[in-house]
Amino acid sequence: MTGRVILSTGWLEVLCLRVASAIVKPLVALVGGPDDGGTVAQARTQTAPGSRWRPAGWKEPRLIVGVILLLVSVLGVVGLVRAAQQSQAVFAAAVDLPVGTEVSTADLRVEEVRLGEAGQAYVAAGTAIAPGTRVIAAVKEGELLPTRSLGADDGTGRRPMTIQLDGTVPAGVSAGSKVDVYATVQRSSASNEAPVSRIVLSGVEVTQVQVPEQSVGTAGESLIHVLVDPRDVAALVSARGSGDLLDVVALPAGATG
Fold it and tell me: N or C terminus: which one in the chain shows less Cβ crowding within 10 Å?
């Protein structure tokens, strides 16, 4: 989500009109007035023989109840409008924040937005950013800073790296899951040799999954961001550099790799 978010209150105005309409009509009936286009003269002729029609006074209980209902409805709508118009200050990325970046307030800016309850998913302006806090899900410049995109440095020195998949992301692979990474050597079309696959990384943690927008006649490449032990960085770099096809397999929940 980028920039400022402005919530239209047009639907609240419509709601207010409907509530007022729903209250006024019964209120007219309660105080003894005409309804549905009727006239005072018609109301008088419809009274029982021998009785005298007279409008309800201010002490009429039905009038008092109607006024109370009207006031409660108006106050409720006013409260909804005010709540929708309340803005809150949250942090947004002042620069691109790739996975693994150590975050400080110098990398952030403040945005006034209207998100309602959804605002709880973002880091409020003024929140102290603890030393060692790192980005675990990439945030683009101008995007609001989700609380789930930040995490503490685990002290392992793992490096953020990206795996490009030539196809769809396997089921069960999402942020926070553990995966094994396999590389398959590409053979020429004239070769009769079967493709050979080998495991490159085992039990690496996924921090973000990026799936491209699909359009007619195009096929995008999915990206998976992982945290790699420094000792395994060379293996992944070698596999990517040699042009091997990379695949990931999700590990069962709770697996450590």
Answer: C
